[in-house]
Amino acid sequence: MIQQKRDLIVGNRRGVHGRVATRLAEIALEYDVIFRIQRGKKSVECSSILDVLALALVEGTAINLQAEGARAEAALAVAAHLITAQDDP
């Protein structure tokens, strides 16, 4: 299985809030991949919106986003844009 990783900085001034967390779960389903966000030593799967919100990812937070699946590279590009964008989705 293909696995891709990217180091990112949260760009939205409101951080990763409910809509962003929900959209990450939707992207994972759409591209049939598994997303994981790692902040420091804590890692969560993006299929759990509450786990993503529990990371408290505010603007400027450094994270590592991982995607695993046949379309991992494409899914990661879409998700990375979502996380680093300064505007709400």
List keywords for this structure.
single chain
Q: How would you describe the overall organization of this protein?
A:
The structure is a single chain. With 89 residues, the chain is α+β, with helices and mostly antiparallel strands. It contains three helices and four strands. The chain has helices spanning 18-31, 49-54, 72-84, and strands at 3-9, 34-39, 42-45, 62-68. Strands 1-4-2-3 form a four-stranded antiparallel beta sheet, with helices on one face. It is globular. The relative contact order is 0.33. The mean pLDDT is 94.
Q: Between the first and last Cα atoms, what is the distance in angstroms?
A: 29 Å
Number of DSSP helices?
A: 3
Please provide the ordered H/E string of secondary-structure elements. Answer: EHEEHEH
> What profile does the largest beta sheet have?
4 strands, antiparallel
Kindly state the percentage of residues in helix.
25-40%
Question: How many beta strands in the DSSP annotation?
Answer: 4
Biggest sheet, spatial arrangement of strands: 1-4-2-3
Structural classification:
alpha+beta
The poorly predicted ranges are none
Give the helices and strands, then pairings:
Blueprint: E1 3-9, H1 18-31, E2 34-39, E3 42-45, H2 49-54, E4 62-68, H3 72-84
Antiparallel strand pairs: 1-4, 2-3, 2-4
Helix pairs in contact: 1-3
What does this entry show, briefly?
The chain is α+β, with helices and mostly antiparallel strands. It has three helices and four strands.
